[in-house]
Structures are given as C-alpha cells and as structure tokens.
Amino acid sequence: MEYTVQKLGNLAGISTRALRYYDEIGLLKPARKSSSGYRIYGQPEVDKLQQILFYRELGLELEQIKNIVNNPGFNGSRALEEHREKLLAKRMQLDLLIINVEKTISAKGGESIMADNEKFEGFKQKLVDDNEQQYGREIRDKYGDDVVNQSNAKMLNMSEEKYQAFTLLEQEVLDRLAEAVKTGDPSSELAQQTAELHRQWLGFTWPSYSKEAHMGLAEMYVADERFAAYYDKVQPGAAQFLRDAIAAYTAQNQ
Amino acid sequence: MEYTVQKLGNLAGISTRALRYYDEIGLLKPARKSSSGYRIYGQPEVDKLQQILFYRELGLELEQIKNIVNNPGFNGSRALEEHREKLLAKRMQLDLLIINVEKTISAKGGESIMADNEKFEGFKQKLVDDNEQQYGREIRDKYGDDVVNQSNAKMLNMSEEKYQAFTLLEQEVLDRLAEAVKTGDPSSELAQQTAELHRQWLGFTWPSYSKEAHMGLAEMYVADERFAAYYDKVQPGAAQFLRDAIAAYTAQNQ
DNA sequence: ACTTGACCTTGACGCAACGTCAAGGTGTAT
DNA sequence: ATACACCTTGACGTTGCGTCAAGGTCAAGT
Fold first, then answer.
1. Residue B81 forms contact with A (CB below 8 Å)
2. What's the pLDDT at A166?
3. What pLDDT score does A207 carry?
4. Which of chain A's ends, N or C, has fewer CB atoms near its CB within 10 Å?
C-alpha cells in the first residue's frame, strides 16, 4: 500500500508539514515522487516512521534519530527491544512524579512534612534519564562513557569528578547493602554503614539534609513495589531492609 | 530559606536561564531583588515552581501555566489532585506505546500480523491526550466543550461533526456493552451489535479495517489489566466479554 | 587591602521543530 | 468546465530556552 503525505500523516498522527520537514532534513525520504511531484511513501517508510516516532517519544532530536535509523547497520528488531526498555524506564520515571505529587498532597493535608528538595523528586531524575535516552547507548558505544557522564554531570550541575564519585557511591551503597542484608539486623554495623553511605549519596543532590527527608525517601522505597525492585535486585527484601536500616540510623542520630 | 537562581535551579533541576526567562515573562517572579540586583526566591516561589514543573511535565505552554498559577483563585491543593489524575492518564498513554512496541516485536518475530494502523496505536491517542491536557479543563470551563472538541477533531484530522459522532459512538459502545454483558452470551444479538458498533468506532481512526487487527485490539484490551479497567468500569468482566464478542463477530464475518 | 574564583546581572544571537500562510499545480467527481 | 480536496515550494514566525559577552558582587584566602 502507498501513501501520500496526508494519508501517512493521518495514519501516524503527525502533520503533513512534519513529513515534508522530515523529507527536507533527510530523516524520512519518500519511496518516490510521482510525475506531478507528490511524495509517495511505501511499506518500508511506514515502518521507519514508526521507529522515528518511538525515538521522538523518547526525547531524541531529529538529527540524532536520523543518524540512527539511516545507519546501514540499523537493526529494526533490536531497536524495538531498546524502545521497550526505555519506555519502561520512562514509565518508572513518571511513577516518581506520581509519588511526588501524592506526597505533596499528603504534606499539604498536614499528614506529613516535606522538605524543599523532596518537592522536586523525579524532576531531577528526569534530567538524567532524558539525557541518557538521548546520548546513552549510541554515544557510549562510539566515544566511551566519559562524554555521557560529563553530560549527566552537567545536568546535575556537578563536576565530572563529583559525578563519578556520585555514581561510585551509589554502587557502594548497593554493594554494602548486599552484605548488610545477610546479617539480618538493620541496626548492625554493616547496615548502619549502608545507611551512612546512603546519606552521603543523598548529599550530592540534596542542598540540605534532614532525617525526616531521609526517612521519607526510605519509606518511598518500600511504599511502591516498582521502586523496591531497584534495591531488591540486590536481594529480595533489600529495600525493606534498607528502610529499616535508615530508620535505625535516623533514630540513633537524633 | 532563600535561594538565588543557581541554588533554586539546582534544587529543582532547571537552568538559571530558565529561571530568568520565567521572571522575564512573569511566570515566576522572585520574592525580591537584593541591593546588588540578585533575584531572591523564598518558600512560596519554591512551591509555585513545583506546580510549574508539574504543568510543564504535562505539556502546557508557559503562557498557559502563567495564566493558571497566577490566577488569584488558584488552589494549590486542587491543582495537585489534578496533576495526579493527569499524570496517571499520561502513564496509561505510555502503557499504550509499550504494548504497541511489544506487539511490533511479536509481529517482527513472525508470531503475529500487524496492520499499518496498529503500528501507530498510542501515538494518535497521545495527540488527543496532550491536547486535552493543554486545553481541556480550563478552556472547557471558560468557553464550553466546542473549542476543545474542535481542537481534538483537528488533531485527528476530522471535521467537528465527525469527531462528535466519534465520541458519541464510543459512548454508545459502552452503553450497548453494559446491556450485552447482562446476557452473558458473547454471541448474543446485543453482543454482536456491540462488536459492530466497536468496528464502526474503529472506522474513524483506522484507514482500513481487518478482522485480524480488530481481534488484535480486542486481545489488547484484556491482555493488560490497565486497559481492561477502561471497559470494566461498565461492569466487572466487560473487557473480557467484549473480547469474546469481537471474537465471535470476526469469526462470523469471515 | 588585594586577589581569586564562584556567582550574579543584562543584553543579544541562534536554534530545533515545526505551525501557518501564500501562490500555484493536480486529481477526481459532477 | 467547475468545485473541492490535496499536492508542491517558499517563507515568515513562534516557543523555550542554550550560549556567549561584558561587567558587577560576594566571600574566602593571603
């Protein structure tokens, strides 16, 4: 089946202007031009447009999309698998915002206290995630990790060194957590070290620290299974354990 | 606590440039200016910025956001409730895309057939949803439904009359489904009428119809509980029933 | 007091991704 | 031939900043 700009635009839900623009920039060329000059698109273009729309949804710039889909080595199936992963990640990021708004509602109702930095939970993560979507895989493969890390660091207004320390500390939290969980005791030395490391990690993105906010975040980790999953990859029950460790940590440092 | 542009920008994950721009357009004015001309923000501005970021996340233009948050009647708590609703809707819309990519992967693997129009499921819904976020509540309240419906119709490249018919038919499907489900028989006259109405509804957005695609969509309705919920609001089990009705309908019209 | 580096200001240019409009050609049904 | 929907190219304009320049301010260290 063949499509002119309006048919294809209707099919996909984009404007004819966008299709002409995509032609102009070399992102999506029509299969051919009719004798009267009309753009005629075919099946391969339909499939390619689908890919383009997924990439666009994930926040990539058109020039980037162009470089990806027009690469001779482009693999449509593999790309689809990646879209899926990234859409799931985007969904999780959206979940962060939903939880944020729910917490803010709760705080507004006087049921809890919310620190200023908590009010922006999710938005900053979105920065890094969006940056990762845009530059992550392709650029890492091509230029190595530094370019992306620099960009992520910039997003969070950190030096590259600081960002590296940030990500290393995150890994250390996970590693220490894995060990601590084996003790089965959230107030054990290892568990308290984990909580302290976690606190240090928070220091990178929080302008100020409070035990309440720390505890609030820990509660969030277990309040929703989607976030518990991040820590439970270390060990089932690790998110709960970390919450308890933080509870002990914040109570002890009162 | 008070913040200068960089502190507030770091807190919220936005650039100093954005904050200055927001000041410039009157969206977010600082609490005061220091003797040296520095912008100084306080607690009310922090809360307001959070609201702005939620609206921005939901796709509203800054001018629109400005009109909303600077309205003397603006109610922060009510706004937060609305953010929550809309974020959940956005999440559902994202789920559509995830299911689409999963179906495309399946089709690529030869496990199923996928029509061209199915490849863009979710993207077109995104158009209407985004439009609704931008213009829905406030404009409907202010000017009535027609302005938004016109805009939605334009999004889907329909006349206003066609869009009205489209939305009315959608309601009719739900109404007929409610009745049909009471028969308990997916091949009953009522159930088959429902499936026929559903097919007509699809005719508004699909350039071509196929039984396979129809069946595929019906499977989607029950494959994921998040979408089943849309039909199950009629009656628990209605999504399943509709799927079965469509199965009978497409088998019978073979 | 002076220096240094981080942070602040205003002003201005430029960009991505189109939306909109104008002028004129094409296809199809009546 | 007419009418209407759709096509083309060309061009201007918009939104929301990113980036840069020039110069002022703040705070800690010497």
1. yes
2. 79
3. 62
4. C
